[in-house]
Design brief:
Layout (H helix, E strand, L loop, with lengths): L1 E5 L6 H10 L7 E6 L3 E4 L6 E4 L1 E2 L8 E4 L12 H13 L2 E5 L2 H7 L7 E2 L6 H6 L3 E2 L4 E4 L2 E4 L4 H14 L1 H10 L18 H14 L2
Parallel strand pairs: 1-2, 1-6, 2-5, 6-7, 7-11, 8-9
Antiparallel strand pairs: 3-4, 10-11
Helix pairs in contact: 1-5, 5-6
Length: 211
């Protein structure tokens, strides 16, 4: 089973690496990083790069498609080459997935029309404007489409889909071996829990944070 993880300039690293470390543990999976052109692709910090070993043209029909988000997603919303590839890959994929604002790219390609989906909490309004039924859930499955909320939820998405494909015990083994047992020092990981002044601060800056 081929898993294609999309890369583009200024993607968020954990959006791609979370599913790579969980879903990529699927037995006999061939996991490839793909981009318009092969070579290093810089994350949103500019200090980390992942290597795209294959171009989009070289991976026309992956079994599982993973689309990360990140500030660079905004620049891809009218990238015809990328959007056409998403549509073509989705036409034959078994699963089409996203993390964070990657769901906006799926929506821009017309793949989430009328479907329940999630995204980073700062992008949910945008997701709804693209025709998706936006929800604030951490992981949403609608048919073959599995979308995850912000950044770290890509780990949950990977485990969720891993369990669906390879069984609960295999997913539990991966969770155990990666020691994914979150016990954060703060309970501020969603706008429902974080201090209100922080939520409002980031809402006011969201136009800049997501571009």
């Amino acid at each position: 089973m081929q898993i294609a993880i999309l890369l583009f300039d200024r993607f968020t690293a954990l959006d791609a690496v979370g599913p790579y470390e969980t879903l990529g543990r699927l037995p006999d999976a061939d996991t490839v990083f793909v981009a318009e052109r092969t070579g290093p692709v810089r994350s949103d910090t500019g200090r980390l790069a992942l290597t795209a070993d294959r171009s989009l043209a070289e991976v026309p029909g992956p079994d599982i498609l993973v689309v990360p988000g990140g500030p660079g997603q905004s620049d891809q919303m009218d990238n015809r080459v990328l959007l056409d590839w998403l549509r073509a890959a989705d036409a034959t994929s078994l699963w089409t997935t996203s993390v964070c604002t990657g769901s906006l790219l799926l929506a821009a390609a017309g793949l989430l029309d009328g479907r329940r989906a999630t995204s980073h909490w700062l992008a949910l309004d945008q997701l709804g404007r693209f025709g998706a039924k936006a929800t604030g859930e951490r992981v949403v499955t609608d048919g073959k489409y599995v979308t995850a909320a912000g950044v770290s939820s890509g780990i949950d998405m990977g485990l969720t889909l891993l369990g669906r494909i390879a069984g609960d015990e295999h997913a539990q083994a991966v969770q155990l071996l990666t020691e994914y047992d979150p016990q954060p020092p703060y309970d501020a990981g969603s706008p429902r829990k974080a201090p209100a002044h922080l939520v409002e601060e980031f809402r006011s800056k969201s136009r800049f944070l997501l571009t």
